[in-house]
Amino acid sequence: MKFFTVIKNIWSIKELRERILFTLALLMIYRVGTWVVLPGVVPKALKNYGGDNTTGDLLGLVNTFTGGAFDNAAIFALGVMPYITASIIVQLLGFAIPYFQKLQTQEGESGRKKLNQITRVLTIAIALVQAGGYLQMVRSMPGAVSPNILDGLFWFSNLIILTAGTIFCMWLGERITDKGIGNGISLIIQAGIIARLPQAFVFEFQNLFGDNRIFLFIVEMIAFFVIVMLTVLVIQGVRRIPLQFAKRMVGRTGSSMPQASARDYLPLKVNSAGVMPIIFAQALMFLPATAISYFSGSGAANTGRIQVFNDIYSLGYNVAFFLLIVVFTYVYTALMINPTNYSEHLKRSNAFIPGVKPGESTAEYIDTIMTRITLPGAIFLGILGILPSIAATMGVNQQFALFFGGTTLLIMVGVALDTLQVIESYLLTSKYDGLIKSGRIQGRSTQGVQVGQPQ
Q1: What is the spatial distance between Cα 185 and Cα 414, in angstroms, rounded to a whole number?
Q2: Domain boundaries, position 103
Q3: Contacts by 219-227 with C-beta closer than 8 Å and gap 24+?
Q4: What is the pLDDT of residues 86-136, one digit of tens each?
């Protein structure tokens, strides 16, 4: 009854109802586009070729993010991945180049508009390059391209269509962000991931049920549930540093009042880096595949050594992948969290940490706490990154094993929490009960005192 009451309350809020319906409509348009095949491509040949492919490589991961559009050679085959790549590049440039850093931190709304424009132009360039590589891969499949279409026309038209498809997906994401609910780009990626989940779930159930191993299927479901719950705990986990605010005299009464809100803590997230360490580590681990293509003619000894780090089920791959995730977690956290900025913001707000001197001592204290809480978060991310390989090695179907961890699970859980947080804020604003009886749902955004951001 509680569930139906919450649904009724959500539906009774006009603005929230309109935003949800608008989001669902645009997501449906995106899903339709994942089945519209490029001109000149033979879908039957693609299906026959893709039947023997595994999901344990980069292409399988990209196909999961696009909801099957990659294997279908659809107009949305590239999805929003070029936009994600461009956003990461622009974000990293902000750490290395003063011009981009100035746009991010000093120029406010005008700076953000310039960065958005740069990101869009870079997205087009990346989409054109990736579209060319994708079309070359499609052409390499036997019978995948119709012999009735001219080669030049096939290349020119589909380069334009794939790039336009990426730009359209990016536009859909921006519309969802502005007039829908939640982060549109993340919701589009999540829609693609969830679209593949039922198929993987049913395939795993049929395999185990057919072999009379239904108990093993139950164990897998319990393990999957536990992993999801642990992921939620890590995403929401924060280390709260208590704060005190200097008081000032008001009139002649001698009364005092704080200069800040009642939220008197500084939250430091256990996983401040989010999914980025896994993405960076994944990109580096697929470099051996490129190296193999160059050393393929240099003898089996050279390719054999490199191939060890291209096999996701090998011990060498998983050890290297785990270590890279841990290292990138610390690196990305150091780039995103600047203890000196925290200290300066607290000083400007007349706030201080009890028992710690303002200024350099505060920065050192925050840096020490951040280093300590990042270690368990980095180890958890590392384990989460190699869990799909571990699950597949233990007999879980590769399609279903992909959801046991890594980027896929982090995106699903993180976006779900963000969306529920938005819905709960609408419910509480409209004087309804929240989604849970006690506490508040927290997404991936920082809670409490927003350092460097307006209150």
Answers
A1: 13
A2: 34-180
A3: 220/396, 220/400, 223/404, 224/403, 224/404, 227/384, 227/387, 227/404, 227/405, 227/409
A4: 888 887 787 778 888 788 776 677 888 888 899 999 999 999 998 988 888
pTM check: above 0.70: yes
- Asked, for residue 282, whether it belongs to a domain, the answer is no
Residue 223 within a domain: no
SS3 383: helix
Residue 301 lies in a domain: no
pLDDT tens string 37-81:
999 888 877 776 654 444 445 566 677 778 778 888 899 999 888
Find where tokens 């610390």 sit.
330
Digit-coded pLDDT (tens) for 417-452: 888 888 888 888 877 766 666 556 666 553 333 333
Neighbour count for residue 353 (Cβ, 10 Å): 21
Percent of the chain residues topping a pLDDT of 70: 80
Residue 279 resides in a domain: no
Q: What is the 3-state secondary structure (H, E, C) of 369-413?
A: HHHHHHHHHHHHHHHHHHHHHHHHHCCCCHHHHHHHCHHHHHHHH
- How distant, in Å, are the alpha carbons of 82, 85, 338 from that of 130? 8, 11, 35
Do residues 216 and 92 lie in contact, with contact meaning Cβ atoms separated by under 8 Å? Answer: no
Looking up tokens 């994600």 gives 84
**Exposure of 301 by Cβ count < 10 A (0-12 exposed, 13-18 middle, 19+ buried)?**
exposed
The bridge status of strand 255-258 relative to strand 247-250 is antiparallel
Q: Strand runs (DSSP E) across 243-397, as ranges?
A: 244-245, 247-250, 255-258, 265-269, 351-352
Count of domains forming the chain:
1
